[in-house]
């Protein structure tokens, strides 16, 4: 939305404030079709368990193999980054992945108590540059942005909470 406004305005000087408001209707609890969670230690050896969990969730909500692969890759990228970087080297910590689905949306929430880090503020990766000309880092969040429909971060107390959503209504209409 912001990008569309900037394109419309072009080079004209901004003469007033811009305000944007988004409203998301959240259905009642009874609309939940699936609720599952898994708790993993911050050890990348646990990635096969994570992938099995995500595949089981995707199958339960009826995603095809291509979308399942995209969702698995996005969730794996996000969780592996937490496993590698949220906790100091040699420190054990947990990563909780919760999956909730209704008829409209599949939501994954990734929760850890590691150091605060908001991946949503990272700039877009310029994939037109060669690997040697591109800044290191940011490809994981790039993959999440490409394959999922929304991503949100919040710090609540000592918890990092990353929420990643996939809209099911668009997939089911195709």
General description of the model:
The chain has 174 residues and is α+β, with helices and mostly antiparallel strands. It has one domain: Histidine kinase-like ATPase, C-terminal domain (Heat Shock Protein 90). It contains five helices and five strands, in the order αβααββαββα. The chain has helices at 2-9, 47-60, 65-85, 139-147, 168-173; strands spanning 34-41, 94-101, 105-112, 150-156, 159-167. A five-stranded antiparallel beta sheet has the order 1-2-3-5-4. A hairpin with a 2-residue loop joins β4 and β5 (159-167). α2 packs antiparallel against α3 (65-85) and α3 runs antiparallel to α4 (139-147). It is globular. The mean pLDDT is 85.
Question: What's the topology here?
Answer:
Blueprint: H1 2-9, E1 34-41, H2 47-60, H3 65-85, E2 94-101, E3 105-112, H4 139-147, E4 150-156, E5 159-167, H5 168-173
Antiparallel strand pairs: 1-2, 2-3, 3-5, 4-5
Q: Which descriptors apply to this entry?
A:
5-stranded antiparallel β-sheet, 5 helices, 174 residues, globular, alpha+beta
What's the total number of strands?
5
Strand content: 15-25%
Stretches where pLDDT is under 50 for at least 5 consecutive residues are none
Distance between the termini: 24 Å
Broad structural category:
alpha+beta
Fourth-tier CATH superfamily name: Histidine kinase-like ATPase, C-terminal domain
| Annotated CATH topology | Heat Shock Protein 90
Element-by-element helix/strand order:
HEHHEEHEEH
Tell me the radius of gyration.
18 Å
DSSP helical segment count: 5
Reported CATH architecture? 2-Layer Sandwich
